[in-house]
Each structure stands twice: as C-alpha cells, then as structure tokens.
User: What shape does this take?
Amino acid sequence: MVRALGISFTYFDAIRIGFIGSFFGLFAFGIIGSDTLRAFYVTRQTKDRMPEAICSVVADRIVGLITMFSFASVAFLLLDFEDIATAHPGKLQTLKYACQVVLGVTSVCLVGVFSVILAPQLAKTKTFKWLLGLPRVGNLLEKLSDVVLTYRSQPKAVLSAVGLSLIINLCFVISIFFLAIGLTNSAPPFRDHLLIEPICMVANAAPLPGGLGGMELALKFLYEAFSCETGVIVGFAFRFSLLCISALGAIFWFLNRKKVNEAYPYQTDDSLA
Assistant: This one.
C-alpha cells in the first residue's frame, strides 16, 4: 500500500515496522495504538511525503477490516443455523443477529468503497470543490483525493493487499482451530471457525490494552453458541501465541531506535520513546 503511492519502501521495512506495530499493539489501546506507531515510523522514513505515508497506513487498515468483515459475511451466508444443535440457543440466536449486522456493515462499506473508486466524477462536483476551499480541511481533502486517484490507478496493488488479508484471516482460522483440537477434547468444526475467527479479531480491535479480554470473551461466547465450553482455554492459548510472535517486534524496535538516532542525531532517546 505504501509502494503503490510511489514511495520508496522495501519489504524489510514493511516487516520491521509491522512487527514494531504488533509489539506495541499489545500494550496500546487496540488497533489505534499499533496503527499510530506504524504511521509514525513510516513518516520518519518519508518525511517529504508525510500525508501519503499516513494515508497508506489508514488504507491498509481499511482493507484489513473490510476483508475481515467480508470473510465473516461469506461464512455467515454459507452457514445453516437451522442445522446447528446447541445447548445455548439464546447465544446462537444472538450470534445470528450479530452476523446480520456484520453483513449489513460489510454491504455498506463495499458500496462506499466501490462508489469512491468507480465514481471519479465525485471530485468534480461543486460540493467537493467547495470543501477544497476550506482552510486546512481543503488541503487534507486534496491530498486524500490524490491518494484515492493513485490507488484507483494501481488495482494490482490493492487486490494484492486484499488477497494477503484473506490469507492472513485463513491462517488465523487454522491457528485457532489447531489450538482447539490440540488442547481440548472438543471444538467446533473447521467451517464454524470461518465465522468465529473474524468476529474474534474484530473484538480484538476493541479499545483495550492490546485488545486483551475482548477477543477471549468473544471466543468464549462463540464457542458456547456452538456447544463448546473450551473457548476461554483456546482464547488464552491463542493470545499467548500472539505474544510470543509479537515479542519479535521488540528486537526490531531496539534496532530501529539506533537507526533513527543515527539519522536524526538531534533527537534524544526520551523524545523517541
């Protein structure tokens, strides 16, 4: 998403900043903290194109969330709730209502995205031109409009980001499912995890330190809706695996602090912390 805007950025830079964001996302408030830190490090490397760099991080998050919601929506449409035998029919019905909301949100988001991408004439309307004339806001909208136009001309990059996001969600599904069958004697079938995982990941984005608690409660509730009482165990096991992998971000962070200090010697360690 960064390179699609014509910004010089290597794969190693993306991996390094991604791990740093993931590491600090464990302590910050949900995805907001990790995205803020990623945007900070991206802009430090591309100070001459700061608005575009920030927009790339925002675009990456938008792609991820829309893909996640779409993933859950497709799983919901393929799942027959009438054939599910559950010891908690009330929770299963609540899950069905929640999935209907997710389906509605996904539809609205997709319509909005395609409207922006497929309707370049929106930038030529009198209302938009009036907004461009507003102080401060106008400059920001102009930059955002340029970014949208750039992404519209780079469909391969956007589709690649969507494809990678789908693969990531599928990997999360496989991870949770394997943890469940490895640690417990019972677990919902794999097809049910196609619905469970995206909702858990949305809960993980809650404004809590690292999303801690939100994902575990969501997994407990969803497992019980499918007549399994092992959601808490699987949730904490999955959280532990995330902690272990995200801990690699600490290494990248300390290496990056040295690199930034060399590039900006006037900055002190306290100002970078």
About this structure: Confidence is low (pLDDT under 50) at residues 263-273.
